[in-house]
Amino acid sequence: MTNVLVVGYGTIGQRLADGVSLQDDMNLIGVVDAAMSLSIRALKEKGMPYDLYAVNETCRAELAANGIPVRGLLEEALEKTDIVLDATSAGVGAKNKEQYKKYGVKAVFQGGEKNDVADVFFHGYANYEKGLHADFLKLTSCNTTGLIRAVDCLDKKCGIEKVAITIVRRVADPGDYHRGLTNALQVDKAPNHQALDLMTILPEIKATGILVHAPVTHGHFITVVATPKRDISVKEAIDTFKEHNRIRMVRLDEGFQGNASIFKYARDLGRPRGDLYEICIWEDTIVKSGKDIMFGIHIPQESVTIPETIDAIRAAMAMDTDGKTAVEKTNKNLGLGGWK
Amino acid sequence: MTNVLVVGYGTIGQRLADGVSLQDDMNLIGVVDAAMSLSIRALKEKGMPYDLYAVNETCRAELAANGIPVRGLLEEALEKTDIVLDATSAGVGAKNKEQYKKYGVKAVFQGGEKNDVADVFFHGYANYEKGLHADFLKLTSCNTTGLIRAVDCLDKKCGIEKVAITIVRRVADPGDYHRGLTNALQVDKAPNHQALDLMTILPEIKATGILVHAPVTHGHFITVVATPKRDISVKEAIDTFKEHNRIRMVRLDEGFQGNASIFKYARDLGRPRGDLYEICIWEDTIVKSGKDIMFGIHIPQESVTIPETIDAIRAAMAMDTDGKTAVEKTNKNLGLGGWK
Amino acid sequence: MTNVLVVGYGTIGQRLADGVSLQDDMNLIGVVDAAMSLSIRALKEKGMPYDLYAVNETCRAELAANGIPVRGLLEEALEKTDIVLDATSAGVGAKNKEQYKKYGVKAVFQGGEKNDVADVFFHGYANYEKGLHADFLKLTSCNTTGLIRAVDCLDKKCGIEKVAITIVRRVADPGDYHRGLTNALQVDKAPNHQALDLMTILPEIKATGILVHAPVTHGHFITVVATPKRDISVKEAIDTFKEHNRIRMVRLDEGFQGNASIFKYARDLGRPRGDLYEICIWEDTIVKSGKDIMFGIHIPQESVTIPETIDAIRAAMAMDTDGKTAVEKTNKNLGLGGWK
Amino acid sequence: MTNVLVVGYGTIGQRLADGVSLQDDMNLIGVVDAAMSLSIRALKEKGMPYDLYAVNETCRAELAANGIPVRGLLEEALEKTDIVLDATSAGVGAKNKEQYKKYGVKAVFQGGEKNDVADVFFHGYANYEKGLHADFLKLTSCNTTGLIRAVDCLDKKCGIEKVAITIVRRVADPGDYHRGLTNALQVDKAPNHQALDLMTILPEIKATGILVHAPVTHGHFITVVATPKRDISVKEAIDTFKEHNRIRMVRLDEGFQGNASIFKYARDLGRPRGDLYEICIWEDTIVKSGKDIMFGIHIPQESVTIPETIDAIRAAMAMDTDGKTAVEKTNKNLGLGGWK
């Protein structure tokens, strides 16, 4: 059993803890946070299914003052830990890294950190082997993780020469009050980082793209214009995507009208928090222009990176040396593909 | 065991089915619907935890064509049923009533139906006794249900002479594409129906109010200006609300910044679909002006009527002749107040 | 002087009337509408700068009952008219056409009508010559009109082989209550009609695209991935766009952060209604991937078709046989390019 | 002629400059700003209808580098000035005050400043006489300004004992990217400052209230529950409001469905920037509960304080010693009431 500690109990950290708990070959040591929050309040109301550790004494006192049971300090948790999943705010992970080193534990950082925090820029599907035995890995961001699933999947089928990506990015998660837009789209400088990141992970593919922020909370929407090396039909693309256990194909006539339908569906499924690990691709959006193939993807930003982060544990700890086997284990434990 | 059938498997119907399933003295016969939908698709993916009945042969064929297992037709379900929870679209319930009569089953309608569909206009807390042995009950709407919880609770404490209500109404549920507003508030003709309905349920209280629709999905927000018969302090009001098992008191300094915080909290709690049965009142909003007391309420529109609808089953079937006992049973089975 | 009548005094009709009034070689006979509206109320408060005609006696009575001065009926207006700009709701134009024929007047329809209502599917820049002497023209829709400005402009510079278009479509105009989305993106079946329409107007270019609706009101946002026949640099593209009097180049460092900045800027400019006739292209979005060039466009949906509709008058009435001269006259009268 | 300088060329500053320009007994010296902005870019494109002064040399250089003609520095402008309208960001006005004192010029601050910046907390209608000959006045905020118009108007008619106020506050102005909410209502600690401010301006009235932020840009919506000293009918209230030149009565059946309708109407009216100086009260929202009267108000946040700020100039400069005459002059020059 690999001992895993989740540092940072925010939007991503909570879902990582849930995901690790579902793995039959991992043991969740607990979660660590730095301050009182609504999520910790909910953890207590649920009866502390996970042990909670405080990042330091000040934090421990603050949590105690709110009636939250604290199991100990970060250091104590690190002593029992093989690998940390660091889901702290951007920049904090880099500082935490020194402590992880001191305790000789490995760590997986999320997409908000700078690339140089890690030895490997990791994506479960596309470059599993690079993560083997690595001490510090950084996962691709939510958009990039989902995007690469789709592009890598096509690339393995027919070879992809280049992609042009338009991202309609949700500006806030449900419940966010510290950020938001009202009746406005916001344009970013191009190319977007997701295109650059894709080229780092899949260096043989050329990529560029434009990102615009939209005032919604339930998922990003990405369009991809891909130039394949050999011609691929719409039918072939659908069949290829359908085989992938982290991709769902959806259709307008099924009632999937957009990002909000997918959130509703995941709630109706009874998924905790209404989360979906899969990206969705609308069959109705797959079109061709000459050899180019274009399609639209839904990215569930809160949960999409969970599977690939768990893959990262498997790679770093060399729990499986073969990426395909590792990914299948993660999928099985998360229930991915079981619905097919 | 009371045999309950849920007719209409939409936003409310799904939650009624879940709520009935949790009652230790009720048996869910199944759910009935009239057409294929995302929710039915999710029901199938979950492995059909409930039996599904089709409203007629056309519908049965449509469901079968989509690979959905259908247990039978509405008529077959009605034969096994003691009481129906009708959660169909506004107006359909009135038509269904004839069939319920034919099969000699009782029914509880939701707030969208006209009052004359029922013998009793019902609210679990405020007028339980009126529902006893009734054949047809209509529940108050989501806003009215939550509003009456708070007003009735104060009324029982200190007597309420009159209330003036401002409702900021969410325009759509998460996942709705058939209605919505974009960057607009919409004003309704005053007084709002909730004020009128409150006077029907609590005839000794005078009420008026204004309703404005706002472009959000996670809950209505209501302010109440209440004139009590005897002076009541803010502290006393808080204590009174706190004793109520269907009311949660929340505070800004706990991180509850608004409706979206409450939705986030319920998701973090692991509640199915991120639902909350309770209304929330912000302690920070309770203020006085002379004898008048003013406060702000959050109404979780998708799930707030579930407890009172289950109370209605208890009343109609005379499972408990005492309202207090009935409500406590419903609460216990739904886990309400257990977190205190 | 060409006598112009505007039929339909809604969002587009009002702006057409304003635009025609600014032309030194056109005479606005007046505007026609079918029912009382806020816009007509505003027209009266402004002191009736245009004559108003009623579509029939019922409408005339309704307007009179609201104290609105009515100059006469549609038929009386048609007798004085050379050409109608029909800005009625989709489908109505086709019915009106019979009456226009009866009075021997030409007509220009907006993008909502079906193509077969007209002899020519028209875009001022791209196919002016086709509109010469035509009796019935249909203008491209707002997105297509703006899109073609940009694509045609590049096509004339370096030749365009194909384009892939992603449209983030605003769901409602400011003030709309009859349509809207709340916290949702809505996906359409691909390819979008704008891609198909582009191929009708510019048949030598291949086009496809995906459209997603976003809950905003101030303009559509389009990304275009264009494959040029010969390589073109970002600098060259910027210079080409800058020469076009119906395109504005904007930059993030100037403060143009998105669609809402552009609306604000137009308001600050003192443009009536805060309108802009120009499309805007962000210099910051222009990127290349191999030979392909990608860029992002803002489409001011309420006003973008006004210049090309006025071009259509010039073509149909053969006021200018040369497209370039015609467009320059329209531009001069509308003040387009004067700010450079 | 009173020489007026506007310091701060943001949302309010621009509108103050426009409003002062319309006064036949005031002379606009110019506007002052501290940094390049979209609004200054628009000022230049319009051909510099106002002289622009830079707050210091650094700013002058920045403006010059952007090709903006600068007339001089703040100090040079102050030498020609009788009174400043300070529309800088909250807190800046307090710092500027020292400079105004040095040059012996009076100043009117906007609602964002703390009350102690000024000798008088001012509202044109309610306390004009207090502003006479004052050196430093602070205007009520946008919500309070509009609210007091309505309450003061009723108070003069029938006496008001107390009010309870619910404010649905727009979170951002059109074009704002530095603030915003997405799919969230945000609750504030009660009582809101507008209730407290109302009691400062109208000390004989008791007030309390709750404020909730909503994700819209076109105006705040306020409900008022007022307890009059003597009974007043709905009809009487309507007639009283109608006489007020800074209040418009609107109705749902006229097409005014909410805040967005009002913005649309003002755009259709051809008002610069689509602005309205008047508050609007929906006749349809005026209801009674016992003696209490309740109604709903629209506050156009960008422009509502302009008339009262101009009144403040008249008071501070003692241009009129009588408030009624002063207000009528402001109204006449701004065209207020002219439409009746």
From TrEMBL, chains A, B, C, D:
Organism encoding this protein: Hominibacterium faecale
Source domain of life: Bacteria
GO terms of molecular function: 4-hydroxy-tetrahydrodipicolinate reductase; glyceraldehyde-3-phosphate dehydrogenase [NAD(P)+] (phosphorylating) activity; NAD binding; NADP binding
HAMAP family associated with the record: G3P_dehdrog_arch
Residues covered by the Glyceraldehyde 3-phosphate dehydrogenase NAD(P) binding domain: 2-142
Signal sequence annotation: none
The protein, known as: Type II glyceraldehyde-3-phosphate dehydrogenase
Coiled coil spans: none
Keyword NADP in annotation: yes
EC identifiers of the protein: 1.2.1.59
Record-level GO BP terms: glycolytic process; lysine biosynthetic process via diaminopimelate
Keywords of this entry: NAD, NADP, Nucleotide-binding, Oxidoreductase
